[in-house]
């Protein structure tokens, strides 16, 4: 694309934060602003972030967001090993196709900084024509995930929109 070409119409994206403590107002979530800024840099219109408690409310919120037909939904939180970390279990039934390589890359990138990255159980996949990815709850884990997504998100969206050019 030349510098004179206008950017295409922004795609729509949504952010879902899974955090019981943030949902109860015990602390302010720090991941949603990082994700929102990054999505705007990627030319997305961002639906205001939704913060829900860990557990079944994650699945309900995801189903609601899918009704708005965003091209991308990024979740943060609920991917660990505590009993209420069920974001992967709430996400997987909504996915038509898994894209496991994205999570493999995310965990590998995170392991360069902390061995705890191997504990992230998130999923990445396609629900209809929406790409969903579960990122960890920590801002550093989110930034690692966005680093992985930066060079591939546009290609993912192009493919979901029926554009098959390979870069």
Q: Share of helix among residues?
A: 25-40%
The sequence of SSEs as H and E is EHHEEHEHEHEEHH
**Rg calc:** 15 Å
The number of helical runs is 7
What does this structure look like?
A hairpin with a 2-residue loop joins strand 6 and strand 7. 37% of the residues lie in helices and 19% in strands. Strands 1, 2, 3, 4, 5, 6 and 7 form a seven-stranded mixed beta sheet that branches. It is α/β, with parallel strands linked by helices. The protein is built from seven helices and seven strands; from the N terminus they run βααββαβαβαββαα. Helix 2 packs parallel to helix 6 and helix 5 crosses helix 6.
Q: Topology, please?
A:
Layout: E1 11-18, H1 20-23, H2 31-41, E2 44-46, E3 50-52, H3 56-66, E4 72-76, H4 87-91, E5 97-98, H5 100-111, E6 124-127, E7 130-135, H6 139-149, H7 153-160
Parallel strand pairs: 1-2, 1-3, 1-4, 4-7
Antiparallel strand pairs: 5-6, 6-7
Question: In a nutshell, what does this entry contain?
Answer:
With 167 residues, this protein is α/β, with parallel strands linked by helices.
Keywords:
167 residues; alpha/beta; 7-stranded mixed β-sheet; 7 helices; disordered N terminus
């Amino acid at each position: 694309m030349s510098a004179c070409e206008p950017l295409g119409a922004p795609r729509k994206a949504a952010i879902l934060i899974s955090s019981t403590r943030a949902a109860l107002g015990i602390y302010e979530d720090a991941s949603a602003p990082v994700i929102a800024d990054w999505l705007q840099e990627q030319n997305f219109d961002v639906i205001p972030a939704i913060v829900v408690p860990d557990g079944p409310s994650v699945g309900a919120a995801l189903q609601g967001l899918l009704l708005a037909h965003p091209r991308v939904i990024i979740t943060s939180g609920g991917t660990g090993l505590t009993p209420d970390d069920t974001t992967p279990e709430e996400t997987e039934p909504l996915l038509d196709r898994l894209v496991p390589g994205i999570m493999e890359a995310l965990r590998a990138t995170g392991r360069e900084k902390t061995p705890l990255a191997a504990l992230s159980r998130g999923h990445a996949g396609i629900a209809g024509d929406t790409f969903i990815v579960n990122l960890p709850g920590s801002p550093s884990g989110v930034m690692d995930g966005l680093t992985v997504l930066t060079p591939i998100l546009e290609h993912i969206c192009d493919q979901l929109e029926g554009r098959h050019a390979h870069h």
